[in-house]
Amino acid sequence: MGEFSSAFAAAFQLITTLDANLVEIVCLSLQVSLSAVLIAAVIGLPLGAALVLLPIPGKRAVVVFLNALMGLPPVVVGLILYLILSRSGPLGVMGLLFTPAAMIIAQVVLITPIIAALTRQVVQELWAEYREQLLSLGCSRKSAIFTLLWDGRFSLITTVLAGFGRASAEVGAVMIVGGNIDHVTRVMTTAIALEVSKGDLALALGLGIILLSLSLGINATAFLLGEFAKKRIGA
């Protein structure tokens, strides 16, 4: 019991004193996850809306495939990207393996289907509600994409936050393509796994507390935005 108490005390000391190693890991984690979420949102938001509004061939099959991608095993994604980005792979000449860029790519692959699928659900509900009104105003289906994305922005922010939560908690894929290299590709999740295996509970607990705080903050923000969106629609 005393060992755990001292580990928690050391973890809080690392946080309150802004330990350089801890801050470096947290900043890299945020840089990778935020970059991945931004790219995934740029791809996923219009893709999800397009699946509702545009006459895409084999749309049902695409939707089923997209939903299936939401459950992609991260280690499989990491393995595939490793083969693609390795020196013998098709993109090996770019030298992306074991860099933050490779970690961003892995997270984009994992969270884009989540954002796109959830966006499709939101836009589908909005289209059912506003379809007649938009068409009567001469709005084409293509232009309605941006109209509905803007109208559902509060609900879609929660979708993006869900993607960020998924990205920030990722371990398997980023471990494979990033390599967990100290001062280069070590993020919170991979650092926690490494420090626990080394027996350094203080740093692992410090990073765990920060990661848990981020998760709670994201979920609380998503809940509040969802409630605000419901009240706005009800008004």
Q: In angstroms, what is the radius of gyration?
A: 21 Å
Number of domains: 1
H/E series: HHHHHHHHHH
| Poorly predicted ranges | none
What overall form do the CA principal axes indicate?
A: globular
How far is the N terminus from the C terminus? 54 Å
Summarize the amount of helix as a percent range: over 70%
Q: How is the CATH topology named? A: MetI-like fold
Quick structural overview:
The protein has 235 residues and is mostly helical. It has ten helices and no strands.
Characterize the structure shown.
It contains 10 helices and no strands. The chain has helices spanning 2-16, 20-53, 59-69, 74-85, 100-136, 141-151, 153-168, 172-178, 188-198, 201-234. It starts with a helix and ends with a helix. Helix 1 crosses helix 10, helix 2 runs parallel beside helix 5 and helix 5 runs antiparallel to helix 7. By secondary structure, it is mainly α. The chain has a single domain, classed as MetI-like (MetI-like fold, Orthogonal Bundle).
Layout of secondary structure:
Layout: H1 2-16, H2 20-53, H3 59-69, H4 74-85, H5 100-136, H6 141-151, H7 153-168, H8 172-178, H9 188-198, H10 201-234
Helix pairs in contact: 1-10, 2-5, 2-6, 2-7, 3-5, 4-5, 4-8, 5-6, 5-7, 5-8, 7-10, 9-10
